[in-house]
Amino acid sequence: MVVKTLIINNQLLTASEDQTILEAAKDAGIDIPTLCHLDGVSDVGACRLCLVEIEGSSKLQPACVTQVQEGMVIQTETEKLQTYRRMAVELLFAEGNHVCAVCVVNGNCQLQDVAVRVGMDHSRFPYQFPQRKVDLSHPQFGMDHNRCILCTRCVRVCDEIEGAHVWDVASRGGQSFIVSGINQPWGDVNACTSCGKCVDACPTGAIFRKGSTVAEMNHDPEKIRFLVTAREQKEWTR
Ligand code: SF4
Ligand code: SF4
Ligand code: FES
């Protein structure tokens, strides 16, 4: 193993030559925000959350797809980076339809976590309110494109871990969207093994398990009556 020496946030450290800046920083206990990165699958540098400053380069570089090099001097928390990250998150919120209050993953969402981390309390960009579809054709899962941030974690986990390659990205630029099969309803894609890996990989509420949405919650007041009766009749005392 060839070892490289570099400096991150004024901390001198060593890393193996095949590591990315993100991995080297993580090993040194330095936490860089990410969204499209997922441990165990390849990196694509899609979300630009992990940008860092490298001395000698005027361009910000994504830490998840930049290999370490001997003598690199890197900063991960400058004011410029914080401003840039906050802007990137604001754009994600403005480009989709994120109504957290009625979202399946409210309180357990990596997009929310990142928003809190970068200090985003509102978006300065006009909300676009795009018209997007919800696909409920799969018997167990649902796909709500309104909450998709195009991180492609579902695409990579399905292809690289499950080997099914159900998901892909269609179209280009701002028109891009995630497709199942050959742009078929998810339920019609025979390649899907229903393993649920994409559900676990999705950082937002875009892919979810049926039965977990707010509208599907079942309240059963009769259960309370049963418990009250059981308590009054001392059915639980020995
Ligand atoms: S995916 Fe996250 S950010 Fe988007 S609506 Fe749901 S909770 Fe909010
Ligand atoms: S569905 Fe989820 S995992 Fe897939 S690209 Fe959209 S946000 Fe990422
Ligand atoms: S985590 Fe590096 S670009 Fe998304």
Automatic annotation (TrEMBL):
Extent of the signal sequence: none
Cellular-component GO terms for this entry: membrane
Swiss-Prot/TrEMBL cofactor(s): [2Fe-2S] cluster; [4Fe-4S] cluster
InterPro entries, per database record: 2Fe-2S_ferredoxin-like_sf, 2Fe-2S_ferredoxin-type, 4Fe4S_Fe-S-bd, 4Fe4S_Fe_S_CS, NAD-red_Hydgase_HoxS_gsu, NADH_UbQ_OxRdtase_ferredoxin, NADH_UbQ_OxRdtase_Gsu_4Fe4S-bd, PSI_iron-sulfur_center
Domain (4Fe-4S His(Cys)3-ligated-type): residue spans on this chain: 80-119
Domain 2Fe-2S ferredoxin-type, first and last residues per copy: 1-80
Places the protein is found: Membrane
4Fe-4S ferredoxin-type domain residues: 139-170, 183-212
Main location: membrane
Molecular functions (GO terms): 2 iron, 2 sulfur cluster binding; 4 iron, 4 sulfur cluster binding; metal ion binding; oxidoreductase activity
SUPFAM superfamilies for this protein: 2Fe-2S ferredoxin-like, 4Fe-4S ferredoxins
Annotated keywords: 2Fe-2S, 4Fe-4S, Iron, Iron-sulfur, Membrane, Metal-binding, NAD, Translocase
Entry's transmembrane regions: none
Pfam families attached to this UniProt entry: Fer2_4, Fer4_Nqo3, NADH-G_4Fe-4S_3
Keyword Iron-sulfur (UniProt): yes
Highest taxon listed in the record's lineage: Bacteria
Similarity comment: Belongs to the complex I 75 kDa subunit family.
Database matches in NCBIfam families: PRK07569.1 (NF005745)
PANTHER family assigned: HYDROGENASE SUBUNIT (PTHR24960:SF84), PHOTOSYSTEM I IRON-SULFUR CENTER-RELATED (PTHR24960)
Record's protein name: Hydrogenase chain U
Species of the source: Crocosphaera subtropica (strain ATCC 51142 / BH68)
